[in-house]
Amino acid sequence: MPTYNLLINGKNISVEADAKMPLLWAIRELAGLTGTKYGCGMAQCGACTVHLNGTPVRSCSLPVSSVAGQPITTIEGLPSDNSHPVQKAWIAEQVPQCGYCQSGMIMTVTALLKRNPHPTDKDIDTAMQGHICRCGTYLRIRKAIKRAAQSGTAQSNGHSTAIDQPVASVSVTR
Length: 174
What we know:
Elements: E1 3-8, E2 11-16, H1 23-30, E3 49-52, E4 55-58, E5 71-73, H2 85-92, H3 102-115, H4 121-128, H5 138-150, E6 169-172
Parallel strand pairs: 1-5, 2-6
Antiparallel strand pairs: 1-2, 3-4, 3-5
Helix pairs in contact: 2-5, 3-4
């Protein structure tokens, strides 16, 4: 099997995988980062959203071979102390119920606010299109996005600083 070098959350991770393996499974099973969730496997629910080069993408539909060497940020790439403005807003608005869809939504929102620090309702609708919350917390999600935007700092913290500088190398085989 081929080996791919992935740059996940600022760390070089070498994985041995089939070229067609979805990035989601490389992240979860080979890199051991389980915050990114499997939802539908068809890029339609958003649970598996990560950043690729700063852009939110559905990791369940991207082959690992297509992303080698590009910066990938997962939910674990955000501060573990919940200090990111989006994380703070999510907590303040009590968005999650089951929480399953939340990592994908948070990753989409951090990219939105980095790109557009003051989104309109239409901007929010467009960015969040295709994200499914089975618990139906959509009103709280919108309130949290607006709260994070009002904080005025959301756009400056869209990515972990680790993304720019690899800090470690790990080799994983399957």
